[in-house]
Amino acid sequence: MFTAAIEPLSALEGRKVTVMGLGLFGGGKGVTEFLCKHGAKVTVTDKRSAEVLEPMLAALFHLPIRWVLGEHREEDFTGADLVIANPAVPRDSDFLKLCQRGGVPLETEMNLFFKHCSGRICAVTGSNGKTTTTSLIGAMAAGHWPDIRVGGNLGKSLLPEVESIHPDEWVVLELSSFQLEDMACLERRPEISVITNLSPNHLDRHRTYARYLSAKREILAPGRPPNVAVLNGEDSITRSWGDQRPSTFFFGRTGRVTPTHDGAWIDSERGDVLLSRNRGLISLFPVRELSLAGNFNLMNAAGAAAAAAAMGVEPATIREAVQKFRAVEHRLEPVWEHEGISYLNDSIATTPESTIAALEALGPNVVLICGGSSKGCSFQALGQVIFRRARGVVLLGQTAEALLASIPTRPGGPQISRATGLEDAILKAREMAQPGYRIILSPACPSYDMFVNFVERGRRFKDIVLQLARSEAPRPVAQDATKSLLR
């Protein structure tokens, strides 16, 4: 569907380019700035209203853009010289089909970046843990290359900066399955490709798990240059993908087994994360020095360390970054503590597996706020963990009924309530909580039924919590308290 052609940037001068889907997560803004910079005649079209898109509109107000909001018009596609499709736009869209029938070339923001980036790329994908792993790699690499750029699916487009990236520079990207699916037409692949883990996700878009896996595997497809894979050694699928490659780093737990594969390994008995390379073992950092809670975050840190080592970052630099790293916004983020009750924002948890990981790390004295829009995932495993690891659960959104049906009804389970919205959910969660409990927003679902994205949902959660807490003379949680709070 998308073009493999690589044209000089000067070819954009005077071309009529339609950006389909501005969005609120950075990619649409970045590609629009890039196009205007190179003299394209840009039309931005989005079905959402100007009111919803206001933050991005304000950032682009100074540019010569033709806006078509609240609708799409056929002539903006059939009459364009080039159409840029946002990753969230369904690939079976009638408007994209119009372009195909009319011979109008299609591009994406990320494909353009890969085509024109002269630097070296380390890219991260997976079903869970992408943002934390990407951020950790960036922090580790920054100790060696202070000006390293980090962006992609975590909300920052690097396309406007692509011309200033030199061949000897590294960039670190988070890539979604949507972005990878569109890259199938490209020859180029990242120099280092990281896959954190795999589980069913985005089945509303990909339809089947096999198609979702195919999209993820694009990051490892043969291409230019030959890439190093950094793969989860505990995930049977990623492990099998690595066994078929000549250059692979693994990460995982060692148990009583001495690692034979190159990579980063968690030695629980020693309490260390070790780098295995060329049949030698080097200590990277003690487990206790990672402030992020949960075994899943320890796996994220091991994956990041393996990638950083593959990039050439020294072990001492990796350890220093681990010591300084704090939770990313919206991932088990401490918000407030009052009368012995802690509030945590885990809005980035848009899959059941992410919420399961949060409950395993934080439970059982947890009141969970859960639910949102559906993307076709099963909640059966989550329901079992909610029963076992939560004292209370407040359900909201389109998936509330499906989540309720997944929670066992036998005695000994959590108190369950339904909420009409996020503020109502927080109030009901507070009624269930006792001193020593943690109230956590970990929805296991996207937010599109109530919010633009998980960022807006998480920030709204924090706003409501802080408004309620200020009325009761609370005290804020210091960042240095994160480790004790979560553990």
Can you give me a brief rundown of this structure?
This protein is α/β, with parallel strands linked by helices. 34% of the residues lie in helices and 21% in strands.
Describe the structure.
By secondary structure, the chain is of the alpha/beta class. Residues 474-487 have low confidence and may be disordered. It is globular, with a radius of gyration of 23 Å. The protein is built from 18 helices and 21 strands. β18 (392-395), α15 and β19 form a beta-alpha-beta unit. It has 3 domains: 9-107, Rossmann fold (3-Layer(aba) Sandwich); 111-324, UDP-N-acetylmuramoyl-L-alanine:D-glutamate ligase (3-Layer(aba) Sandwich); 333-486, Protein-Tyrosine Phosphatase, Chain A (Alpha-Beta Complex), CATH 3.90.190. The chain has a 9-stranded mixed sheet with strand order 7-8-6-9-10-11-12-13-14, with helices on both faces. Strands 19-18-17-20-16-15-21 form a 7-stranded mixed sheet, with helices on both faces. The protein has a 5-stranded parallel sheet with strand order 3-2-1-4-5.
